[in-house]
Amino acid sequence: MAQISSLRSGLIRGSFIPPKEVRELRDLTRYKRKLIQTITSEKQRVEKILEDANIKLSSIASDTFGGSGKRIIEELMRGELKPEAMAELTKGRLRNRKAEMKEALVGNMEDHHRFMIQAHLTHIAMMEGLFATVEQKIPKMKGTSLWSKYHSLVGRRGKKKALVAIGHKILVMCYHILKHKVPYKELGPRHRDERRKDRIAKSYIRRLSSLGYAVTVKEAA
User: Fold this and answer.
1) Is 68 exposed, middle or buried (0-12, 13-18, 19+ CB in 10 A)?
2) Closest alpha carbon to 137 in 39, 52, 27
3) Residue 143 confidence (pLDDT)
4) Coil, strand, or helix at residue 219?
5) Which range of residues forms the domain containing residue 204?
6) Do 34 and 109 sit in the same domain of this protein?
7) Which of 5, 103, 111, 206 has a Cα-to-Cα distance from 189 of 20 to 30 A?
8) In angstroms, rounded to a whole number, what is the distance separating the alpha carbons of residues 207 and 81?
9) What is the rounded distance in angstroms from the CA atom of residue 26 to the CA atom of residue 170?
10) Residue 172 belongs to a domain
11) How many CA atoms lie within 13 A of 119 on its CB side?
12) What is the pTM of this model?
């Protein structure tokens, strides 16, 4: 109670509130991570139900929900094809393991299994739809250095790792803002390009200088 009174009287500073852009990106990043966790959990539940039906799809396919795995699950839900016919649906490297796949698909899929799998597949589809919506929202935050950082990482690391990296960057930013008691300063989307340009120029100048050249750098008009 004494701490609350001190806070109201101004003796203790209130919690730091990050800038609007940082808060929005943080919310999107956290929610997207939650969606990924939910989708992963639902897929694992489908695998457990298949195992309960003695379908060992995950023991052969490294990704149960890859191209071949999805086609096989669809046919298992229909219940029309025999194991040997479903094994023919495999693509890529899995085609070399058709005999093993045929054995893995010999099980006992009952109506209960199909009902539960369909429930989980429906939930996965909903979560993936939300995932896509959130993913589209992030690029709309153009004009910020975080947006620029995100897109510079996506091509090299993929979307999931890029989001984790952005989340980490936001935490580091908040730490420095709190430590040094300075306001957030938006550097703009071209900040990374400018820093990269300076680093590249300095690197070439050092290399030329080591070869005995005197270098003068002047920006083009």
Assistant:
1) buried
2) 27
3) 60
4) coil
5) 190-221
6) yes
7) 206
8) 66
9) 7
10) no
11) 8
12) 0.59
Asked whether residue 34 falls in the same domain as residue 115, the answer is yes
- Copy the structure tokens of residue 68: 């071949």
203, exposed or middle or buried, with CB in 10 Å at 0-12, 13-18, 19+? exposed
- Report the C-alpha gap between 22 and 150 in whole angstroms: 13
Q: For the segment 197-213, what is each residue's pLDDT rounded down to a tens digit?
A: 666 677 777 777 887 77
Residue 108 lies inside a defined structural domain of this protein: yes
Let me know whether 96 and 195 are in one domain: no
112-119 — which CB contacts under 8 Å span 24+ positions? Answer: 113/49, 113/50, 113/52, 113/53, 114/76, 114/77, 114/79, 116/49, 117/46, 117/49, 117/50, 117/73, 117/76, 117/77, 118/77
On whether both 36 and 135 belong to a single domain, the answer is yes
8-26 confidence digits (pLDDT tens): 444 444 555 666 777 787 7
Residue 152 CB burial class (10 angstroms; 0-12, 13-18, ≥19): middle
Amino acid (1-letter code) at residue 95:
R
Q: How many separate domains does the chain show?
A: 2
Q: Are residues 207 and 129 in the same domain?
A: no
Residue 24 vs residues 144, 146, 147: alpha-carbon distances, Å: 12, 11, 12
Amino acid at 13: R
CA–CA gap between residue 128 and residue 178 (Å, rounded): 36
Residue 174 lies in a domain: no
End-to-end Cα spacing for the chain? 64
Is 41 in the same domain as 119? yes
In a domain, 86, yes or no: yes
- Which structure tokens are listed for 28? 């999107």
**What's the rounded Cα separation, in Å, for the pair 106 and 87?**
11
